[in-house]
Amino acid sequence: MPGFSRRNLLYSGLALSATSVLARSAWAQVAAAVAQQEVEAHALAALGPREQLLFDFDWKFQFGHGADPARDLGFGTDQGDFAKTGDFKFAKAGYDDAKWRKLNLPHDWAVELPFVWDEALNSHGYKPIGRKYPETSVGWYRREFSVTEADAAKRLVLEFDGAFRSVLVFVNGCFVGRNDNGYAPFRYDITDFVNAGAKNCVALRVDASFGDGWFYEGAGIYRHVWLTKVDPLHLGKWESWVRTPKIEPHAATIELGTVVENQGAQSEKASVSWRILNAAGKTVATAEAAAQTVNADGSVAYTASAKIADPALWSLEEANLYTAEVSLSVAGKVRDAERVQFGVRMVRFDADKGFFLNGKPVKIQGTCNHQDHAGVGAALPDRLQWFRLGVLKQMGSNAVRTSHNMPTQEWVEACDRMGMMMMCETRQMSSSAEGLAQLELMIKRYRNAPAIILWSIGNEEWHLQNDEAELGKKIAATMVQRCHELDPTRVVSAAVNGDNAKGVSDALDIIGFNYNLKYPDDFHKKHPTRPIFGSETASTVFTRGEYFTDAKRNVVSAYDLNVPKWANSTEEWVSFYGTREWEAGGFAWTGFDYRGEPTPYAWPSINSQFGIVDMCGFPKDAYYYYKSWWGTEPVLHLFPHWNFAGKEGELIPVWVYSNQEEVELFLNGESQGKKKIAKFGHAEWKVKYAPGVIEARGWKDGKQTLVEKRETTGEPVAIRLTADRTEINADGEDVALLKVEVLDKEGRAVPTADNLISFKVSGAGELIGVGNGNPNCQESDKESKRSLFNGLAQAIVQATKQAGEIHIETEKDGWDGPELTGAKLTITTRGVQARPTI
After folding, report:
1. How far is CA 474 from CA 80, 438, 440, 482, in A?
2. Is residue 386 within a helix (H) or strand (E), and if so which, with residue range?
3. pLDDT-wise least confident of 126-130, 464-468, 801-805
């Protein structure tokens, strides 16, 4: 993006501290990514005349109405709205929107709504969105803006990364387009509708009455918006690609392609050149395509090839990236340019040996995730995408699946730069014009991303894999063929909940199994040439910090024991895929808890309990099981906590997750015995509860290696705040995530605390969301207070554009019991070169 550097955002955001989520090994990868972004940002500023301006700030919003035109800006009153062009007054500069709410994007209004006990809303998190709730299912956005006189000679394109869901776009009183997909990006050329050198207005009506999925999806403009200015002769959107068909020990052949579009009034003879840069910004290869004539209102494809000597391969350990600068010239003058990030790496799925990256066998250790976080819903700031990926990477995960829709650019970029693989999935499995359009957009947009190792064309299409198998086979075959045409370098799969015996599976390159561990062995015997992986696994349910299942409270224990009828325990699935060489690995459902699909309980539960971490990213105990067997560091995790007043003398299950050979457990200094840890297993004891200390000691090669303790704590006396960073960027986008705890008089965090804490935020930032990871908590995500859940809560603060300090203060809020000493924290916001905005 022109002139924009994320160096400060990442450098301060992922730096090591006592509260950092990333280990040193992970930080080393991110540090390299920071350096590359710095080089790219400076180089891009002088690359070409194209401008891409962030269009997120200074919007106005108000609710419309899905049934009453009088409460919907009069829209649809007489059915004559579209009779004449230019009649929409609400989309003209000067319209009175003084009473509309001011906000910045991205924005999800659904997360702001109260919860409603309506079982029809179960899967979408009990938020009043849908045709039954017309007063909260339609929203209007307005934004006035100016462009210069010089812009009259350019093409102006309004670009949306995603909005949920059905969007009508108006510019200066004119209707310019409609988009009905909640996840695909969409764009409109608004050149003819814009008044250069004068005030302009864009207005959007967003209708979330219909959904795309069966999970929480939010509502509103929940991804970025851009205004792009280009020459009439320009590079086509997402038409530039880089492939590396041949990689040898000392050289990589790269193939290059793009499409030039001419929206000018006359034909032009244009040439295209490429410059390949390494991570340090050094030119390592160049290429040029012969000049061609591009007719007015026409387009022409260009291709070339080059070689990179001694390429630095993209891998999980070293996420090496290259950049292709693509320049479009006429008579030596650059008319348009862009940069394409790519990686040099080899991926291969083998039916006998599993998955290979750069010739080395690698088990896919993945998680499935929705775009959803505590406090902000589906409208995640970019920094939060990096945070979430860091949580998963620290666990030892090496892959993510985009469930079940096209991801954001920021999530893909984070994977590229942090060495995390991706299974990229489209939303609608269909060979209709709409279904193929969604698929094509996804592949064109992300085919240069080295993180993506396979495309997925759908998830659990019951009819197409069973009773309508022939139909499924035809649809899948068309989709797979289109994937191969657009990207011949990657395999195509789908997530199938069944035996993969017929239907869509017939057309797939590799076979994905959702759950059903009874099927893969037999399938492998019958189809020994077809690679197999776990497209969706686990679905074990846990409540963070709970150690006794209680249906009256809608909680399940955090032990690996609670499995729905279709699912498998954590140990079962990890062991299954980990002990079969031909299994490529799999994706656990899910990395993070998410709103909607509350399982195993319905109301008043409002989110799932499938996550390995909760809605805030706080780890559940199972996190450390994965870390033991997926990670590379020594692990010793002891649970539960040791606060069980009233259960004195009762047997308490005590578990240890560890990758050490043996673990010895002590209660108040008395040994409870030593136990061996089998691979993919754990150790457990039954211990009579007595207040004090339980202690686990890990042993390997006859030596004590690790020690971990759990102590009985006292009553809460003080609040503690810690932040993932104490310095962030003053760019109006960056965020800091605060962990909220309460301590006893000895300074120990109280793991059972549920105090209600209030937040006061002042200075150069604002509070944008709160959460606590409680799947049954119906407190507002947007108020300035939140109760702790089993000792933890989270607050998210966002910087303004003014450098300074954000001051956060806390106090106990109206709960019985002794007063707590409050906490104060200061976050410094520093001036940076923010990305260009309009």
Report:
1. 42, 18, 18, 13
2. helix 382-394
3. 464-468
**d(Cα 694, Cα 363) in Å, to the nearest integer?**
35
Structure tokens at 62: 């108000």
**Exposed (0-12), middle (13-18) or buried (19+): which is 536, by Cβ within 10 Å?**
buried
pLDDT higher than 70, residue 1: no
Q: What is the pLDDT of residues 594-633, one digit of tens each?
A: 999 999 999 999 999 999 999 999 999 999 999 999 999 9
Q: What CA dihedral angle connects 597, 603, 609 and 613, to 10 degrees?
A: 100
Does residue 139 carry a pLDDT above 80?
Answer: yes
What's the pLDDT at 239? 98
Closest CA to 279 of 29, 13, 12: 29
CB atoms within 10 A of CB 360: 10
Note the pLDDT tens digit of each residue in 369-384. Answer: 999 999 999 999 999 9
Query: Can you read off the two tokens belonging to residue 550?
Result: 């209680």
Report the number of secondary-structure helices (H) and strands (E) in the chain.
Answer: 10, 45
pLDDT of residue 23 exceeding 60: no
Pairing of strands 59-63, 174-179: unpaired
Return phi, psi of residue 13, to 5°. Answer: -75, -30
**String of b and e for 103-114 (b: at least 16 CB within 10 Å)?**
bebbbbbbbbbe
- d(CA 758, CA 812) in angstroms, rounded, equals 6
Per-residue confidence (pLDDT) for residue 46, from 0 to 100 = 54
| Cα first-last separation, the chain | 14
Assess contact for 656 and 678: CB atoms under 8 A. Answer: no
Structural contact between residues 500 and 521, judged by C-beta atoms closer than 8 angstroms: no
The reply to whether omega before 590 is within 30° of 0 (cis) is: yes
Q: How confident is the model at residue 8 (pLDDT cuts 50, 70, 90)?
A: very low
Distance separating alpha carbons of residues 108 and 111, to the nearest angstrom: 6
Q: Which of 561, 579, 583 is nearest to 570 (CA)?
A: 561
Compute the average pLDDT of residues 506-530. Answer: 97
The reply to whether 536 belongs to the active site is: yes
Angle, CA of 719, 722 and 723, to the nearest 5°: 145
Integer Cα distance of 801 and 811 in angstroms: 28
Residue type (1 letter), 553: R
Mean pLDDT for the chain? 94
Sheet hosting strand 793-799, strand order edge to edge: 718-723, 735-743, 793-799, 765-771
**460, 461, 571, 597: which one is catalytic?**
460
For residue 775, pLDDT beyond 50:
yes
pLDDT for 465: 87
Of 536, 546, 571, 695, the active-site residue reads 536
Q: Are 322 and 279 in contact (CB under 8 A)?
A: yes
Tell me whether residue 460 is one of the annotated catalytic residues: yes
Tokens 């969105």 identify what position?
129
- State the CB neighbour count (10 A cutoff) for residue 653: 15
Per-residue pLDDT reduced to its tens digit, 776-811: 999 999 999 999 999 999 999 999 999 999 999 998
CB 376 within 8 A of CB 796: yes
